[in-house]
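Hi R.,

Here's the chain you asked about this morning:
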Amino acid sequence: MTFLDMLGDSERRHQSLLCVGLDPDPARLPDDMAGDTSRLFDFCAAIVEATADQVLAFKPQIAYFAAHRAEAQLERLIAHIRQAAPGVPVILDAKRGDIGATAEQYALEAFERYGADAVTLSPFMGFDSVQPYLKRHGKGAFLLCRTSNPGGDDLQARRLADLPEQPLLFEHIAALAQGPWNTNGQLGLVVGATYPAEIERVRRIAPSLPLLIPGVGAQGGDAAATVRAGWRGQGEVTSGPIVVNSSRAILYASSGPDFAAAARAEAQRTREMLQAARV
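And here is the predicted structure, written out as tokens:
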């Protein structure tokens, strides 16, 4: 199955738009694990098992593992997701952006070393920095487009004076992804939940692309507004998929021995809220 096939199948089976971000901060692990970098796998595996039937996808963030020399734990975690949540796609949040032979190596890392189904990328260096990932049949890639951080305005909200009608940079990225850059049909965009009006603008430009939407939960994004702005479909049939990510609100719902049960309860609450907003 291609990444988009997996995404659609997972949405239908689990009736979910929720992606759980796996960003394990050793300082915020439950009390009996706190500060122990050798327990990152144990913590994340428990979260995966508790939420497997509630999610559309999982999104491990590579920096939270690499910073602690825990890449082997990340490899083990993705293999565990395959067993505990079969058919649920894995999006490796790496935000890579380089050209030529280096991009080829990053693609090898994401798709062969870690076995991810999709990866996040920076489009700043142009199409030749994206193309190596799209040469992998059926694998997905999400381009940073309109991110949820305040500093995104520094570049993403600037107008491109040399193009007709002077689009903003993020609008131009959306048009490229919907059009000539989408050579394997598996390209998507990252658009932050803190800007629902701009999610809607991106959706008008890219009506069928999957949107990865971080910022719901601890970052304060409005879940219902996010779904109304980005999700497109008829009944249970999705024509414009969205992947709404929540990380800290689910991961750290409790710091006690009930952390996995608390994570499940928060994931279920968020999933139901997202489903209710589909109109």
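One quick note: The chain has a mean pLDDT of 92.

Cheers,
M.
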